[in-house]
Structures are given as C-alpha cells and as structure tokens.
Design brief:
about 5% helix; 4-stranded antiparallel beta sheet; elongated
Length: about 130
C-alpha cells in the first residue's frame, strides 16, 4: 500500500491487498489484479494510472473526498466496463519478438495525482 499526502494506492489480487516489500509488490504470473485508489483528503483529486508506461485512464479519474475506486480494467473511450482487465503476464519470447516488443517500463505501475485547490475562506466584516 502506498500512502502519500492523503492518497492511498494498493494492488489487489483475488480481492486481497498484496503486501509490499520495500517499494515492490509481487504479482503472480497470469493473475488478474486491480488497483485500489482512495482519497483521504477533503478535496477532489484527479488520478492517472500508468501501467507499462501507458495511461490506463486517459484524461484521469476524478476521486471525490473520502471516495475509493477499485480500478480493474483499462478505460477505453470513457467506458468503465468494456476495457481489458489488468493481467500480469510473463514476458516470453513471443511477446519480446512480437509487435509489442520490450519497453523500459514493463512491469511498472505508477499513479500520479493532483488535488484540487481548497476554496478560500472569505470573512465579511460588518
């Protein structure tokens, strides 16, 4: 589980949060997984999730204060139910020599977020 400035991100497999070892989470090969995102702040956040260097949520996800989202698939054209599910696959010779090839960010999951600015408090004097 990653916790930074009131944003939580965890990797889940089979409904359970996977344990971290320093800054690494080990996912079994051929296993589907999801990414749990939780906003513990009092303002909205926009989150972009990159898997293997590609943004899984183009345009970002808006997460309200106190809200959590269990992201389990790539979002295509704003559709939350039709993209491919996240699956950790072994890099084989067919993948390395295929159209996808080898990328520097293979196996990396990165979440970038930004909180909205809090509304200013204005005191009106009588």
């Amino acid at each position: 589980m990653m916790f930074n400035q009131k944003m939580v991100a965890s990797i889940k497999s089979k409904g359970k949060i996977l344990r971290e070892f320093k800054d690494t989470v080990y996912i079994p090969f051929a296993c589907e997984y999801s990414i749990l995102l939780k906003n513990l702040n009092t303002v909205k956040a926009i989150v972009n999730v990159y898997i293997d260097g590609e943004n899984a949520v183009p345009g970002g996800l808006v997460i309200n204060p106190g809200q959590s989202i269990d992201l389990e698939r790539w979002i295509k054209n704003g559709n939350l139910s039709e993209g491919n599910k996240f699956k950790f696959i072994e890099r084989t010779e067919n993948i390395e020599n295929g159209p996808r090839g080898i990328k520097d960010e293979d196996g990396l999951v990165r979440a970038e977020y930004q909180f909205e600015l809090p509304r200013p408090v204005v005191n009106i004097a009588d």
